[in-house]
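Protein data sheet
==================
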Amino acid sequence: MAYGKTMVFTMVLIAFIAVAAPVKLLAGPVEDAKQLQDAGSYQAAYNILSAAKAKLDVRFRKNTSLMKAQISALDRINNNDEMHRIKAKNDQLLSERKAIRAEQTKVNNALEEISSTMVYLPYKEKDTVKAYSQFIKKYPDSPFGGEAESRMMDLQFAPYKESGTPEGLQEFIAKYPDNPHVPEAQKILGGAIFESCKNKGTPGAMEEYLAKYPDSAHTAEAKVLLVSFQYDPYRKTDTAEGYAEFLSKYPENPNADDARARMEELQFAPYKEMNSIEGYREFVNKYPENPFFKEAKKDLDDLQYQPYREQNTAAQYAEFLEKHPDNLNAGDAKTRMDDLQYQPYNKMNTIEGYEEFITTYPENSHVEDATFLIEDIEYAPFKKDGSKKALEKFIENFPTNRHVQDARTALEKQSAATKKTK
């Protein structure tokens, strides 16, 4: 009798839930419970399933009682027709039994699922590492164990990820080595450490980073920054001494060529501005490998040559050549000196004058010119006379004169002309 009251109460409760629930029910207890569960009405869903389970249990017991009665009746009946009727009824009860069992399984599974859900919900609502840890420990076989563990791992990582500091991320990795977020933390840690080293802006910080993390995602950028961090301080100070120090410390830096070019330019600049013999002499002695060496040497030689060039006398050019035999202007000085030494004798245009010139200046480039002019002067009167006697006398008196051949040619022409006349 008490059991009957319980069934009545359960059926009334189901009817009340069906009316009160904001979800359209009566699609079946499992389906109705699922709709209520999806809507967040877990207790209502649980109550529907519990009532359905109780109802199915009653049906199953009733089915079992009827089957037993049918089997018992078979032992007392000898009439075949009655036996067939009882057997058919028994088959019907057996079929109903299977259907009830199937429905019981379905309801029990749903009830087990919602029960697990209802057990899990309080922990899920707290949504803390501690709550999920307690749940996993208390209900190790719960179907929500995986979800609880995954969420717990997320919550373990969340504050460290949010802070993003190298110290925090290192603490997380050490504290939770088995957390699936460790690889992500290591990646973020690498980025955080890189940014920290980057913000320091020093070659030492970037070298340390590359030494510790040679294969990180930031390696390529770190190498570029290292090159920049090495060179930038020296480029900003922009001194020859600074660039020399840079080249000594970082000879393999890609900016080495630019630094060397700028250093050499700065080494030359003050001497170029000074523009003095003393300055250029100091520069060529101090920086023989500097590419501005040739320019400095030329400027030095020009300054040394300038006063002699301004006076423009043979004596001054001779003095210049004696003092500065290796000067780039030595050739020009020699040419000008030779011209000035030669000019008065050339203007005189006498054998005696040219002979004196040759004797006085045997190394002068005009010696050959003077020699030719002497021969021209020697030959001139004989050539003008043009007689056989004059030409023969010229050959006799000046056997080494280059015009001897000219005189002989003239004599041969005269002899040929005479023979023709005869």
Confidence is low (pLDDT under 50) at residues 1-25. DSSP finds 20 helices and no strands in the chain.
